[in-house]
Amino acid sequence: MGDETHYLLPKQRNLSKGSKSWYGGISVNGIVRWVSLNTKSQKVAMEWFGRMQASRFAPERQEAKPVGIEAAADAFVRDVENVRRREAGTVRIYRQYLKQFMAWCKEKGIADIHKVTSAACLEFAQYAFAKSAANTAKNKVIMFRHFYSWIAEHYNISGKNPFKKIVVAKPKPVPRAFWTVDECEKIIAAASGEEYKCYFALMAFAGLRRNEARMLRMENLADGKISLTGKGGKHAELPISKRLKTHLNRYLSIRGTEPGALLPSLAKLVCVSKCQCDQLKCAVEKSKVQSSGQVHFHRFRHSFASNLLRAGRSIKAVQMLMRHEDVALTLRTYSHLLPSDLEEAAEL
């Protein structure tokens, strides 16, 4: 007599630890194990449950049919983009990683996704991660584990995830380069036009991500707060500081307060263009700010968190303003100090 398999309704586990991931229950001969569905979407979790229930009554669907690696990768990316609704930047990185994987498989003569073995994945990892920084290698491993879990579920591949056995070096925390408050003000003052000045100020003094700032509308500004839906579909209300209010008021005195996009010319762009990046680089150069490390928009967000910590704000407050799920992430990433801060701290 064969194994008797049943599927249990998905549920969120470890909510007390801040996790919102959904897990599906698989009962084999009365023994239940919970597997991560790699999603925070109830809709996606229930779709998994529906497919699993259907598979019990449609054995013919369990037959393994040849599936091209390129077709499987394209289907996975479409799911990530259209169902899981990941950000455009995440989708672009996934495509980049998978393109490398497909090229390697083609070189090795592996055309069928069912032929991807643990040994092949280990060989690919040694090839693909050799020159990657530790944090990049970690992100690649996570992505490929998600990819293969999704493939196994959709194309009836039994056995353990071959990417599970791949272990990479634990990334060492690297202090984020940031600008001080005075340096942020100088860069903002050197920006070309009031719209860009406001754009930079929203990132520097509210910690907004570049697209969050770019897509703000007048309706998002009310009662001294910025309301927005950010990364991962999370809603937030952020206080407008006195410093940011000064910049906003100056910009609105020119723009006006009619409804619509707060930054009209930036909002109509499909994505952040090279022109915008050049605007920031020109502003930094014109401001005479000595800038070590890369010049990019996200550095304003790093600066916001770093300057809050240097001003003595609590790590919990910084976590909430940065909208991090875990305070450990905030502490690990932004607890760096300037040498002058250490000298001051050493005084009794």
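the 2nd protein, sequnce then structure:
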Amino acid sequence: MTTIASTNTSTLSPAEQDLSAIKIGEWGEREFPLGPRDHPTRRQVIFKQSVLNDIYTHGRGAPEIEVCGVLVGNVYHDAMGPFVFVEANIRGNFSSGKAAQVTFTAKTWAHIQDVMDRDYPDLRILGWYHTHPGHGIFLSDMDLFIHKNFFSLPWHLAFVFDPQNQEEGLFAWRTGNMLIESFVVQKDAPQPTPKVARRVPEFLPNVLGSTASHGSAHPHAETRAEERATEVATPATGHATVAPAPAAPAPTPALMNATSTMSAGPRATQQAEVTELAMRIQTLEKRQRWYTVAMALIVLVAIAWPVVFSAIAMLHSPDDPLAVPQSPAAPSSSSAAAAPNSKHQPLEEAAAMHGASAETDPEARP
């Protein structure tokens, strides 16, 4: 039964907490998944293409939030040394994902444990994977906290996939630190589209001998000949063999400049990290500017639409809204002059009638 628990790193020295510190005697023997090796290579991690495909599908299914899962497989060795073989993955269902953070909940671990017991009783958890939608390939402080407390053994890996920028990268323990690690792929399934760009280490681990013989200032640097070695799949078996790359072209000023930069050791690494950080900050600033413009447009629309609506209503109104309402007509002066006083009207009418009758009737005269 596979157990999932926080591991204690206090008993591991930096030299022991290293992918190259895996001891052959502790693991079962197995042929290298890409075919027999004739000499040790720097590539000690193998992924099945089907595992990568499922991680891509998982991440692309939720491109706005982080998702996670675990890597499943085992550690083996052949005549040339140990290697880590990632043969399956389990999605972290019931995890709590946000735009820039993902959390393994208790329900997530219970689900992973059930799948391990049911489907992979003879395998082990080799690490975890999660997505960085739009943020690039790196391990945040929270990622490192998770890895150090749950995946601290030398063979534990951390795989990061960015579904928006279509980038991926693998991190492994190197002298007590998590660094970008190279890996190879067993083509057990077709490679999906779009193609994913892979981050590779600037300095490659040395598994062939001491670094002093190579004249390198970096503890994990290899010879340029070993760096140029490529793995080519054979059509007949689908396996891979290590073949030397073509001879390097004549040095150019650009190539000489790049070579001198690589030989600068830790200083070059720091410069590369600063450059990458600056590019990431520029990307975030550009995204923030777009967010600001979008919010300004939303506020403008919210303010303007009542005014526009009122103007449209005024244009369609049958009456002139600007006309001053007319008060009831006041009586004219002539009408006012002709109107009798309501108090004396009966007496004046009686006198007028008496005068008219006296003028027309002669007998009525005294």
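The chain has two domains: 19-248, 260-316. Residues 58 and 292 are 31 Å apart (CA to CA).
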